[in-house]
């Protein structure tokens, strides 16, 4: 366009679309057209997050507005916002069935993926509306679409959406899908305390012994006191003899958690453990509450923590970022209390490295989360500010990136990398006609 819309005009136009005021929307479109034509005028009007009038109309289910925007204004039905979400994503997220039908009829891509790989089917699986799930699958949505955070089945399972899990499995979704950083559908349903989803997944062929992030389904069920789920897993063939990273079997895990019914269920089917002299309910409860057991458990946790951090650092140094994240995550997940007892520098360094690993994998949000956590642990740590700046840069927030690099530069004035990055982002801000940091 030959001009830049002011803030008020932009939001009045988008507000009309959101509120379903078609007459106002048409009038504003004509008023704002400075000779570029209706199509170009409407397409150019976006908010700061890249959302068009079609996004706003779709999220509120304004099908008549969507019809005008797609048929008369010829707005691209697959237009993406700043996160890569299309109007179809928006309509699915708020269960707007008729709007979704219209968008699909106008050519909306049922497999359009966001920047994080999420398709409309992921959104439908999370909220669970049967009609939308079946509509998307009928229109060609891939049931095993892979996003950074898993498949639609993993999303449905993690939110305990029984009906969505049932539909996806009926449409041949893989019940044993495993990702580097995402729980299997079975493990996700256990963590969501969804007995019904667990039953459906096991019936569909989910392996009850497949580890997810270093843990078996039975161990997690025992740890969480999910006795009903535990029995379901055992009936499906879960092995009660498999020990975890600390050498504990599921019955010991249940005993440590004080889950009486779990202990009573597992004890008769677990081979006696030599170190437990009295293999009975009272005997194992006494054992896990003994000073000897606590000392040994503490030692094993410390050893595992040191090993995990060492493997994480080695993987980071060899640029094996996936395994580095896995080991750092295991360290944080399995022994957080011990990390707190380490020096602040050690904890901040580990968080910073995991943040940079996420950044190398183009996971800006996760990189930022770890960078901020590192900064909070040790505000004077310049590399935390460096990681934070890298994350903001990945998220295309150049002003905040420059601020992070500037703060890091103030903490370490001899760090030429931080100096160069700050100057570089200052040039970007200047090119974008934004005020400098200083």
From TrEMBL:
Residue spans of the ANK repeats: 49-71, 83-115, 116-148, 148-180, 213-245
TM segment ranges: none
Record flagged with keyword Transport: no
Matching SUPFAM superfamilies: Ankyrin repeat, TPR-like
Keyword terms, alphabetized: ANK repeat
Record keyword 4Fe-4S present: no
Protein name per UniProt: Uncharacterized protein
Gene3D superfamilies given in the database record: Ankyrin repeat-containing domain, Tetratricopeptide repeat domain
Residues annotated as signal peptide: none
